[in-house]
Amino acid sequence: SSSVVRSSSRRNCRLMLQLDELEGAYRGKSAVLICGGPSTPSDLRRTPWFESALWSVNIHGILMPDISFIYYYDRHVGTVPEIRNHPARRVSHQKDELLEGDVFAGICPDFGFSGAHSVWIAAYMGFSPVFLAGADCYGDYETDYWHQYPGGKEERMRHAKNDHADHWIPIAEAVKDKAEIVCFSDPLKEIFK
Fold it and tell me: In this predicted model, what pLDDT tens digit does every residue of 4-50 receive, in sequence order?
């Protein structure tokens, strides 16, 4: 019985893609990364979403039609049935949760949060420009996420807008020669200029 499990694991690893296999594979194509911020709907209207590869950052974009990729870093996100059963290609550092055709992102530097990882991965895969929809740094809104009802702010998200924006500086430096990053949040526009 244990030999069947090991054999099955090896087979799944062979069928899973490694991120380095996709370096530059999408050159000439744009990507829209759908983050969770309240500005997501208005930001999406400012992108060429209909002709771009759509990425769900964590669970935030899976409500949208035609999602091509779902990126998640945290282990608990990959076990959410809506992500586990979604037809999009999953990209993650959580190798044990990925399925056939998904992408193991182990070579991506650790920037500390999923939005930054997804920017680096999209740029590495050759996407440019990369549009960040809903990356509004958890500012002064009634909600933390675009898919929340008003009044649904989480205590852990009540930090200063610029404190969160500063976390994007290392990723901006890492992709500056790889892709054009288009942001709609004023603090991020400054960081990615």
Answer: 332 333 334 558 899 999 999 999 999 999 987 778 888 999 999 99
| Single-letter residue type at 35 | C
The three-state secondary structure class of 101 is coil
**Cis amide linkage into residue 87, ω under 30° from 0:** no
Q: Which two tokens stand for residue 178?
A: 């790889």
Secondary structure, 3-state, 119-140: HHHHHHCCCCCEEEECCCCCCC
Structure token digits, residue 119: 């920017």
Query: Is the CB of residue 74 less than 8 Å from the CB of residue 114?
Result: yes
Closest CA to 151 of 143, 140, 139, 160: 143
- Average pLDDT along the chain: 81
Instruction: Tell me the pLDDT tens digit for each residue of 62-90.
Output: 888 899 999 998 887 877 888 888 999 99
d(Cα 49, Cα 60) in Å, to the nearest integer?
15
What span, in angstroms and rounded, lies between the C-alpha atoms of 38 and 19? Answer: 30
Q: What is the pTM of this model?
A: 0.82
| Distance of alpha carbon 8 from the chain centroid | 28
Backbone angles phi, psi at 71, to 5 degrees: -105, 135
Dist. CA 83–CA 64, nearest whole Å: 13
Instruction: Name the residue type at position 50.
Output: F
Beta carbons within 10 angstroms of residue 82's beta carbon: 11
